[in-house]
Amino acid sequence: MFQRFVISGILLWCALAASARTRPHYGGVLRIEIQGDPWQAPDGIARQLTMDGLTRLSDTNTVEPALSSHWESRDADHRWQFWIRDNVQFHDGTPLTAEAVAASLTQSCRDGCPWTSVHAVGSSVVFISFSPLPDLPAQLAQSKFFIAHQSAQGTLEGTGAFRVTGFPNGIMLFTANDDYWSGRPLLDTVEVQPKRSIRDQWIDLSIGRADIVEVPPEMLRQAQQQHFTLLTSSPVNLLLLQIASGGPLANPQLRQAIALAVDRGALYNVIFQKEGEVTASLLPNGMSGYAFLFPSERNLDRAHELRGGATPAQLTLRVADGNPEMHLCAERIVLDLREAGLPVQLSSGNSRASSDILLRRVHLEANDPRAALDEMLGASGQSTSVLDTDATSLYRAEKDFLAAHTVVPLLWMPQAYAVSERVRDLRLSADGNPLIADAALEDTK
User: How far apart, in whole angstroms, are the C-alpha atoms of residue 106 and residue 99?
Assistant: First the structure.
């Protein structure tokens, strides 16, 4: 019995020690490395750390109050009123007011917004729209509608869980906002090092210099083989071609020939290592349920037929960003189009000059089919909104838009990160971004 008592005591001590060693606690510095610009819209990590919207999406993809405490709609969703949460301040100490919110959203509307007007009414903001906006609360959770104001020093200030406090040696420092309206985050500091190659990110993770690094879709299998701890989202990034409707491609048959000539299967199998899903739809099939109705198979014979034996003028294809996998995709697409008799050359460097064909990635934030289709149409240059919410109406609206062949969806891809062993309780949002405010570091004291 004494021996059993000793063994039980030892096991209990080990369990308590392990619990203390892994218990999340306040404090610590989380180190993040990324390839791009942390302020880029819509999914830049700096925006997620420092800014909030009037609403936000929960873990179950439902809309929750954020900077607004509650809201209501009238006139068949043509008029919405959102009441601003009390006792919230921007990082420079300026109170959050309805006037500040309306000014921020008016600035957002320079890039196109679904409502006709927004203005402050007492402690609330009112949205007016010529068309009904049944999903406006969900739309306001998107990062392009995050609330910010310009300080007296000319800096852009948010209300988020972290505030910018420095830029030593090219590293952005974010310090916990002690007065955050949703409660102080567990972490003291977040360091974000931008412009870091994937190779360097993975090395730093392996030797303990980084806690969160990026994993491109085409490298997910390699990351698994290296036994990284991975967080992977559902498909949230759409790879697409945007085709000019004028100049040498004014003929819609030539644009259709381009759409039919691209070998999506080769991009999926070879470059992206079978991660994500092949698509010819603006929405993931898991969201819409009808994406399979858009044919995505290559049809080289039909592409030749549409070209009609004529050789169009020299075309240019440009890549919207400098990621290596995007350039590999572009090179493969150029070969596909040349095989269809379409003379295409890849623009050199990161030229911002106009091009006939643009290869780009579009990030999806919306959480339901109608809002998602509105978001994707807006990202593709379409200003009108889809009024109906049933799947049949959404399918018809998307089919009508894609019939012009100015936008050619290619692949839906997930967003993924590798994390160090000391990171605890980190999750990804519905649109694939790490929820840093909810994360903690292992207690090693």
Answer: 10
Q: How far apart are CA 104 and CA 101, in angstroms?
A: 5
Q: Is the dihedral of CA 198, 200, 203, 208 positive or negative?
A: negative
Instruction: Give 261's DSSP letter.
Output: H
Chain CA centroid to CA 311, Å: 39
Q: Give 417's strand partners.
A: 214, 231
Residue 96 near residue 67 (C-beta atoms within 8 A):
yes
> What pLDDT digit, counting tens, does each position of 205-218 carry?
999 999 999 999 98
Distance CA 164, CA 157 (A): 9
Residues 6+ away with beta carbon under 8 Å from 321: 36, 360, 361
Condensed to tens digits (0 to 9), the pLDDT of residues 339-385 reads: 999 999 998 655 456 789 999 999 998 878 888 888 888 888 776 66
Contact call for residues 65 and 55 (beta carbons, < 8 A):
yes
219 in Cβ contact with 416 (< 8 Å): no
DSSP label at residue 96:
P
Structural domains for the chain? 25-44+160-233+415-442 (3.40.190.10), 52-157 (3.40.190.10), 237-413 (3.10.105.10)
pLDDT (mean) for 76-88: 96
Which two structure tokens, joined as six digits, stand for 141?
């959770």
Residue recorded with tokens 């104001």: 149
The phi-psi region of residue 36 (left if phi > 0; otherwise alpha if psi is between -120 and 50; otherwise beta) is: beta
- Residues 121-144 have a mean pLDDT of 91
* Mean pLDDT over the full length of the chain: 88
Q: Report the pLDDT value the prediction gives residue 385, as an integer from 0 to 100.
A: 66
b/e for 163-182, b at 16 or more Cβ within 10 A?
Answer: bbeeeeeeebbbbbbeebbb
Q: Whose structure tokens read 């999806």? A: 364
Q: What is the pTM for the complete model shown?
A: 0.86
Residue 67, CB half-sphere, CA atoms under 13 Å: how many?
29
The gap from C-alpha 440 to its chain's centroid, in whole angstroms, comes to: 23
The C-alpha atoms of residue 7 and residue 242 are separated, in whole angstroms, by: 68
CA 169 to mean position of chain CA atoms: 27
